[in-house]
From TrEMBL:
Keywords associated with the record: Glycosyltransferase, Transferase
Name this protein carries in UniProt: UDP-glucoronosyl and UDP-glucosyl transferase
CDD domains, alphabetized: GT1_Gtf-like
Domain of life: Eukaryota
SUPFAM superfamilies: UDP-Glycosyltransferase/glycogen phosphorylase (SSF53756)
Listed PANTHER family: EG:EG0003.4 PROTEIN-RELATED, FI06409P-RELATED
InterPro entries hit by this protein: UDP-glycosyltransferase, UDP_glucos_trans
Gene3D superfamilies: Glycogen Phosphorylase B
Gene source species: Colletotrichum gloeosporioides (strain Cg-14)
Record-level Gene Ontology MF annotations: UDP-glycosyltransferase activity
Name of a matching Pfam family: UDPGT
The keyword Glycosyltransferase is assigned to this record: yes
Length: 519
């Protein structure tokens, strides 16, 4: 049960980092904004470590009492990502392929399994556990992460209603396309994962239309949704409406009354004629991060020695020697070009988790010696650090003031954190909406997509060219200026504070009748 003296917010989310990150950011902002609320976070057990870190930070920044107001609840079942990634599921394999026409058709054909990756039996089991937590907490307001379909479905069908709202780490594009006049999703905006440019070039419009048709056929002929609805009718009662991310604006506008907060805003997305009324663009929702001097004093001292490039391709990326070799040669070219420039003391910190199948995963012996040989001069001077793990949060490095370029995979968190810190980007997208973020970086004038020809991997010459354009090229200063302008519009914490404000408005507007306020 919740504390009877406090108003209660219940948050349902998958534990997957990309999804949970905006939730944890918003939890921090909520606790800071209102000391008289209690926040219950319900997720899979994999959330425990991430939640404990944010609770620790709340305790450090706001005090023990604030940290005590955050409660955890474990849910049964797999997270959205784990449900897709398990053996025998082809969905993630098709995501990470080169987006050729055959591979795109393969990926789009399994799209229903991406938006609804659980079996019908699993879905009902998770739904019931969501209901259990709701019954125990009896919240005043519910927040649901947008890919957690069992919780979306429960909240929509709950009677009497508990006020609820959706929180998404995604951009405006994902939820606004279906509301645009003239069907521009066919001829203007590239379908996700396609690597088609924005706006769609004239000669690629037929291909973009074809991909959209394939996606629609896959979605509307899939039996997955029907099996889930049948199971719901058998086990949970007749007439329940299934809600997935598709019903939040991706394909059709959400049911009346449902609002969707997104971690993005119009000035950092593609331009749209219409921003639907159900959307709340919050701007980047990023987690607070302790100063690098607190998190890792030795690394902070090293960063202060000179301008530094930070390369981190996300939690799901790992390197074999072949991949690492291409990156190493690209940086070799960059260091050589920088010798006669204002960046002659350039540094590199490269997070490089390695595949276990290629020898020692920490040193530079055996096949990994080649990587050290390529960058030996800079490594011997301690100007290059290649590590498999960095203790500090990525944002701690970015906000240190010493990072001059973020080399990332185009994940939403990486892209938006770099924007908030005013740092130009070199993007190496490998799947799904990462291609869109690479396009955004170029459209906004804050970076380069440096793997167009080698996607979903990279080649040394193309990567080197991208690095040199962002750091040393004729447009480098303009990219820095543009990135810093966007950072001024999106200062640290503004997005998460906006999300918290929206949730608290819902709480204030629907709490006049006590628990489970009424519409």
């Amino acid at each position: 049960m919740s504390n009877p003296g406090k108003r209660t917010i219940l948050i349902f989310t998958d534990c997957d980092f990309g999804q949970a990150n905006v939730v944890l950011s918003t939890v921090y902002a909520l606790v800071r904004a209102d000391p008289n609320i209690e926040i219950h976070v319900a997720s899979q057990p994999g959330m425990q470590r991430q939640l404990s870190l944010i609770i620790k930070q709340v305790s450090n920044d706001l005090g023990f009492a604030a940290a005590e107001s955050i409660k955890a609840h474990d849910l049964v079942g797999s997270s959205h990502w784990d449900a897709m990634e398990r053996p025998g599921n082809p969905n993630l394999d098709s995501w990470a392929c080169d987006p050729t026409i055959p591979n795109m058709v393969s990926m789009l054909s399994v799209l229903p399994g991406i938006t609804l990756p659980w079996s019908a039996e699993e879905f009902v089991e998770i739904y019931r556990d969501v209901e259990r937590v709701w019954s125990e907490v009896q919240p005043d307001v519910i927040v649901v992460e947008n890919f957690f379909a069992p919780a979306l479905t429960f909240c929509h069908n709950l009677r009497p209603k508990t006020p609820w709202i959706v929180l998404a780490p995604n951009t405006i594009k994902e939820f606004a396309l279906s509301a645009q006049p003239g069907l521009p999703s066919l001829w203007k905006y590239p379908i996700f994962n396609s690597a088609i440019s924005y706006p769609v070039p004239l000669h690629q419009i037929p291909l973009n239309i074809f991909y959209n048709i394939v996606a629609m056929i896959a979605i509307f002929t899939s039996r997955r949704r029907g099996r889930c609805i049948n199971r719901m009718n058998e086990q949970l009662g007749q007439g329940l409406q299934l809600i997935t991310v598709n019903e939040l604006g991706l394909l059709v506008p959400p049911p009346p009354g449902i609002r969707v907060m997104v971690a993005n805003s119009p000035d950092i997305d593609f331009p749209f004629d219409v921003i639907p009324n159900f959307m709340v663009p919050c701007g980047p929702i990023t987690r607070p991060a302790a100063p690098i001097s607190t998190e890792d004093p030795e690394l902070a001292l090293w960063l202060s020695r000179g301008p530094t490039v930070y390369m981190n391709l996300g939690t799901h990326s790992s390197f074999d020697v072949a991949k690492a070799r291409e990156v190493a040669y690209a940086f070799r070219s960059l260091f050589d070009a920088a010798k006669t420039s204002h960046l002659n003391n350039l540094q590199l910190i490269w997070k490089m988790p390695r595949v276990a199948s290629e020898g020692d995963t920490s040193g530079f012996e055996g096949p990994w010696k080649e990587i050290k040989d390529i960058l030996e001069s800079e490594m011997d001077q301690d100007r290059v650090r290649i590590v498999d793990w960095i203790t500090a949060e990525p944002k701690s490095l970015l906000q240190s003031g010493h990072i001059i370029c973020s080399v990332n995979h185009g994940g939403s968190n990486s892209f938006h954190e770099a924007i908030c810190c005013g740092i130009p980007q070199v993007i190496l997208p490998g799947w799904a909406d990462c291609y869109d973020f690479a396009l955004r970086a170029e459209f906004l004038g804050i970076g380069k997509w440096a793997s167009r020809t080698a996607r979903p991997l990279w080649k040394r010459d193309e990567l080197a060219k991208g690095l040199e354009e962002v750091l040393l090229g004729p447009q480098a200063m303009n990219m820095i200026k543009r990135a810093q302008e966007l950072a001024k519009r999106h200062p640290e914490g503004a997005g998460r504070d906006r999300a918290a404000e929206e949730i608290l408005k819902l709480l204030d507007g629907n709490n006049t009748n006590g628990k489970n306020g009424k519409y």
